[in-house]
Amino acid sequence: MIANSMQHTIGCASDKSAIRQAFSKAANTYDQHAEFQRQVGHLLLEKLPCNLSGKVIVDLGCGTGYFSQQLLARGAEVICVDISPQMLLKAQQRCGNANIHYVCMDAESLCLPAKSVDYVFSSLALQWCHRLETPFAQIRRVLKPNGQALFATLMEGSLHELKTAWRKVDQYQHVNHFHSHIQVKIALAQAECERYHLNWPNITMWYPSAFELMRDLKGIGANHVSGRASGLTGRRTLLELEQAYQEVRNDKGLLPATYHLCLGVIYR
To answer: Sign of the CA dihedral 93, 94, 96, 101?
Structure first.
């Protein structure tokens, strides 16, 4: 059963609603466009014990349940949390109902009991939160003593090739702003997360065209950009973007999309 929670957001409510709608629309296409998301999630998964029997773990921003299924396979009791009910339905279709629960909830209002879970696993969800200290504080609150939270989030400078190409087309914002290194550290301090470890890897994905990159972003639901005006991506505009992106094509004819990451572990 998928439970619902009253949504509470620190940022603009209409913006959070648009994010929810974008991911809900992408529920049926997400898996075929999520190669990058799987790469990042596997980096986090490597930080967890192979045997999670008897442990309760929250998959925060579970999407279609790809990693929820793998956590189940390690013996964990899994709580799938996502802002999109359609994503949760996909997760339920993948993972079933044995030893797993589904909760439609915002990471900025994690309505779970205090000190109730052993681990929180959150891969590429926190960048959609307006103020990082809010989910960090919620994560700290729900972790048991000696529990751990593992998270991955996108950092400032991600998709800089796409952003640079768009600047040559028009003056509008087409790529989301992401948190800086110092903002992540300040948010952890404000959330009273005193013990943590962070590293900052980069991953570059390669595409035959800018259109293919844009299709992947839309296919996973990551095409909502806060403050972007509508009606800006007609055929002519996309052709201009394609032309502008060619300046970074490599000798194999491929275009880069670079992601800057924060991989973090919070110790309770």
So the answer is: negative
